[in-house]
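Sanity check

After download, print the first record. It should look like this:
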Amino acid sequence: MPQKKKKKALKNFLVVILLLWIPLLSYSRGYLFLIGGGKRPPEMMKKFIDLAEKVKSGKIVVFPMASSVPEEVGPEQAQELRDLGAHKVEYHIFNRDQALKEESASVLNDAGGVFFSGGVQSRLADVLRDTPVHKKLLEIYKEGAVIGGTSAGAAVMSEMMITGDEKRNKEGEASFSFIEDDNIVTAQGLGLIKSAIIDQHFITRKRHNRLISLMAENPYLLGIGIDESTAAVFKPDDTFEVIGMSNVIVYDASSAKREILPTHKLSVHGIVMHILKPGDRFSLNTKKVAEK
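Expected structure tokens:
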């Protein structure tokens, strides 16, 4: 083979190798620890602490901004983690202007874990989205940190975020009474999960209607409903494991056929539903229960 052709073949080979490695280089090595709200069993929270303390200094940062009383929730959540054995915990309360400052991101330096309290997920997203703190959060997640949250702190993790509001609910009617098209209000979340929408308090508060409605509108996404006192722990291999006391429900409408009626009611054929118990694992890639 002429020298010029050899060089070209080598160049092409190196390009192929680089393209194969790029996804691996950008691949997240962290964990997501998403709790559906309610009481948090000590054994469950200890697993969060264990994951955090395997990374860097093991410091855990609590963000309580979803709460209407973050000044109370922040120290309470930090103390809960200390009582369960966490060695270094601190909490920080930011408003939007503070989160936009570059120096604010330094609170996440050397962090092994971040925990978001419950409340209203839109409060969290409105403060942190597209700020230096958000950017740093994504960085430490890729570096191996565990990012956790309960209730609103779980819902905010998905790129398409349920806000808790609907467009056509009349005053006095029960919330999310119907499975309908174009009724559930969503917003942009923090984007740590791009292939699914997260819902919380799922079985306890009977939130099936709103998540099924969204799955019918967005069949390319999975719907993951996490019940109270239960967590879905997302791992670097794109699987998650159920831990805690109840269930995680997964809806897959990727192969379903739908029809939208003039009344906005939906007909959807072929939605797959998985009811996962503690110990079950699910693959986001195959959309199937993973073998143990």
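If your output differs, re-run the checksum step. Summary of this record's structure: Residues 13 and 262 are 56 Å apart (CA to CA).
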